[in-house]
Each structure stands twice: as structure tokens, then as C-alpha cells.
Amino acid sequence: MQGRFGRRAAFRYRAAGFALLVAHLAFVCWLTLRPLTVPWVTAETLEPLGAIRADLALTPWAAARSIGGGLLLLAPLGVLLPLAGGRVDAYPFASFVRTTFTGAMTAMAIALLRSEVTGQIVSVDALLLNTLGVALAHLLVVPAVRTLVRRRADRVGGAALPREESGRTMTPTMTRVGLAPWSDASSGSRT
Fold first, then answer.
1. In the UniProt record, does the keyword Membrane occur (predicted)?
2. CA angle, corner 79, sides to 74 and 114, nearest 5?
3. Which whole-number Å values give the CA distances from 62 to 22, 55, 65, 66, in the listed order?
4. Of 19, 58, 66, 129, which has the most beta carbons under 10 Å away?
5. Burial 151-186 (b: 16+ CB within 10 A, else e)
6. pLDDT tens column, 47-90
7. Which carries the bigger pLDDT value, residue 53 or residue 172?
8. Residue 33: HSE in the Cβ half-sphere, 13 Å Cα cutoff
């Protein structure tokens, strides 16, 4: 009974994560890929940290708004991608690398699509800030949430999750099963 409840809950979490992920990406595409009618457009900035330096030369409010917007645009992906994946027992470093790489590729795809839209500019710094936002959101939220979910599963009695002892994850072991003798396996006869 517990296993079936756990699988149902995991499916609901994955489905909710996937739905929120699609909704967030649709919002990001609407926000960044719509044509803008402006009297002038700044040039593309392909020099790393050039746009950030220019933003810092502005007023503190304008700099915080510009840099914060770059950090926050794709930051929810840092939480939604692992949620949609639904793996509670994932290795933290591997999960971080996967999420950050996927965030970087998403930011790059948006930047490439944005280069074709009227009134939108491409900035390497936007790519860097978007990726950093994904990484920071993942580091700040995902490990804590996974720890809470593991503790809750242990308290409820979820046997499907590996238990932690002395800081190391213990995986269930199976007894070894020997191979069938060659003559029995090749003859195809069953006795």
C-alpha cells in the first residue's frame, strides 16, 4: 500500500513540475521573444561582462533591476527541472551539473531565437546571468527540499528510498545469482 501511494505521489510531483516548467517556459518565451517597437536598439554585446559593466555605471536601482532581471528570468528552472525529473535519490553534484547545463542550453536557445526578433538584442551577459540564476536557485532550494522529502519518506515508512546511515547512502543489495551451466542454457530444454 505504501509503495503504491509513494508512486502516485511521485507521479503527481513530476506532473506538477512538468506543467509548471512548461508554463514558465511559455511565459519566458512570451516575455523575451515578442517584437518590440522602439526608436533605437543598442548593439549586440558579445564581450563577456561588458553589459554588466555598463549596467553598473547606471544608477544603483537601474543596475539592480537589469542584473536582477537577468538572474531571475530562468532561475525557476533550477527548481522545476529537478522537480519534473522527480528523482529524490539523485547525486547532488550530478543533479547540479545536469540542471545548470540544461539551464545554459535553454538560455542559449532563447538568445539565438531572440537574435531574429525585431527590437531584441543578444547579450552574452544575459546568457551568463540566466545560467547563474539557474545554478543559484538549484543550490539554494533543491538540496534542502530533497532532504525534507527523504526524511518524510523515512518517517512515513517509504521503503523505496535508500536510507542514510553515517552520511552515506546505503543501497539495497541483492544476492548473487549464478549463471546456468552452458549445456542447459544452450539446449533450450527446461526441466
1. yes
2. 15
3. 30, 7, 5, 6
4. 129
5. eebeeeebeebeeeeeeeeeeeeeeeeeeeeeeeee
6. 778 778 888 888 888 888 888 989 999 999 999 999 898 887 78
7. 53
8. 13
Q: Which of 77, 86, 73 is nearest to 135 (CA)?
A: 77
d(CA 68, CA 16): 27
* pLDDT score recorded for residue 181: 56
Model confidence band, residue 133 (pLDDT cutoffs 50, 70, 90): very high
Query: What SS3 state is found at 169?
Result: strand
- Full-model pTM: 0.71
- The 8-class DSSP code of residue 36 comes to -
Helix, strand, coil distribution of the chain in percent, nearest 5: 65, 5, 30
Closest CA to 66 of 82, 55, 75, 77: 55
pLDDT for position 163: 47
Q: Is the C-alpha dihedral spanning 143, 146, 148, 154 positive or negative?
A: negative
Q: With CA atoms as reference, report the closest residue to 170 among 82, 89, 92.
A: 89
- Which residues are paired to 164 by β-bridges? 169
Distances (CA, A) of 106 to 25, 127, 186: 9, 9, 51
Rg, Å, the chain Cα set: 24
In the block, residue with C-alpha cell 539551464 = 103
